[in-house]
Every structure is written in structure tokens, then in C-alpha cells.
Amino acid sequence: MPKRPDPSAGRPVLTPLTSPGTGAARRLYAVHPGALAPAAWQPLAERLPADTALSLLDLGNIPAFFTAAFDPRAEPATVTELAGRCLAEIDASAPGDAPFSLVGWSFGGVVAFEIAARLEAEGRAGQLDELVLLDSIAPVPAFKRTDEVLEPRMLLDWFAMYLGAKRDRPFTVSVPPVAAAEDGLPVVLAAATAQGLLPADTELAGLRKLYTAYHGGLTRNNRCTAPYEPAALDRSITLVKPERSLLPDSGDLGWSLLSNRPVRRLAVAGDHYTMLQDPRTAAVLSGRPADSAVA
Description:
- About 30% of the residues lie in helices and about 15% in strands.
- By secondary structure, it is α/β, with parallel strands linked by helices.
- It folds into two domains: about 15-145 and about 225-295, Rossmann fold (3-Layer(aba) Sandwich), CATH 3.40.50.1820; about 145-220, no CATH class.
- Strands 1-3-2-4-5-6-7-8 form an eight-stranded mixed sheet, with helices on both faces.
């Protein structure tokens, strides 16, 4: 497992991923939840038009957000604080009135929504061209989950997707009912070694350590989201949802409760992580029509 970065090292929150060169460029900012390295966006970035300037807003580089994943006693940065920091980075990167589009992946979608809310409150709503959410769960009561009610098999399914993403290949495993997610880790390990995802001599303690780090980030996100109670926005939202979504049976993941306009949905292949490699995800971020979008 890679060494944990030093949160005091002053890592940049905003990182340009594409450089369109001179002339007018379409500005696109992606709010990254920080669980994976920024390189996860590279396949998508390579599919964007040459005139698109894609910049990453890496929440994992905000110390108060990062450290709370490893210390359950630490007070995490709030959604509004994270959004404020991201908007300040956006404004510092270009003239304050220049239009741009936002995309938020997973928990990053919640922060992207709050950025849009701040723009609306400041009379700058027209500056935001598009708001696109990638398999993000809306911060509404029906979808807020405390750590105690997170179903173990669901957690293990999410962890399996994450483990596959860490190894750069899809991974699925069928876990029988268990009392706690940790009880199912031996099944995950057996499947991962059988499928060649992990070396045959991988010890359960190593996998448990990775799961603990993953679960810490998940519960940190829940703590950030729990007190956040946004109002609906009068703007369109596009939700890109993969076949193997975090909540595949939950429609628009609650976003219709936070928009006064119909939510545009786009179905793509893959899972919560591999969706970044689907050409249709890049197409919707390019502003091109997608034939599978539905209201």
C-alpha cells in the first residue's frame, strides 16, 4: 500500500490536466473526491476536444478533508467549506466572470452542487454552463446513510470496485450475507487472488489495512454530508450513471429533489470507477449529445 502523503506538504488543490494552448477555450473543472490518484481522469481527458481546458479540483489535497479519513475524531471540512475553497481556486485560475462547466465524481458531485448553489446565491448562476454529476448520491434525507446502516454486502461490493480500480481492472465478487463487512474480506481475498487481481501470497492483514483506509474515507464523506441540507436549484443537472452504480436501483440517486428542472440521465457501461473510461462519459462532458440520455 502506498505511503500516506503528508497533509501538511501544501499540495495544490487545482491541477490543469489539459492545455488547449492559445485562444478561447471551454473551461471544465472536475471535483475529484481524492480516493484515487488524479491519473484516473487521464483516459477521459484524452477524449475531450482540443479546445477544452480540463482542470482537476482534488479534495484530497485539502488537509482538513484528507486527515479526517484517517482520524474519526477529527472534524472534517464541511461541504460548504470545500465548495468555497474550490470556487476560490476556480476564480483564481481565470477572470471571475468567465463561463465554465462543472463535473463532480462521487462525493465530488455533492461539492460541485454546492459550488453551483454558491454561484446562484452570488448572482453568478449564468456563469455556470453545465453541471454534470458522475454517479454521485444526492445529499437528501432518503439517501443519507449513517455508518451504522451501511449494509455489509453493499460495502464489500463498493470495496471490490475500488480494489479493481486500484489494480486498473474490473473486479466483482459475490459475498454471502455477513454480520460485518470485515467478516467478508476472506471471500474478497480468495476471489481477488483467484482472478489474478492480487498475488497468491497476499495476506488478509494487508487487504484489511486497505479496506480500513477505504472505509475511513467513506465514513468521512458521510460525516461531511450529514449536516448539509441544500435547497433545490433552478438549473439543469446531468447525471451520468454506470451500469454498476453505487446504487444501481435508485433512479436518479435523489437529484430530482434538488433541481426544479428535469434531471437529464445518461447510462454508461462499467462501474463507479471504470465509467471514467467510457467514451459516452467524455461525450457528455464535451457538450456533445448522447443518444442514451433520458429525462
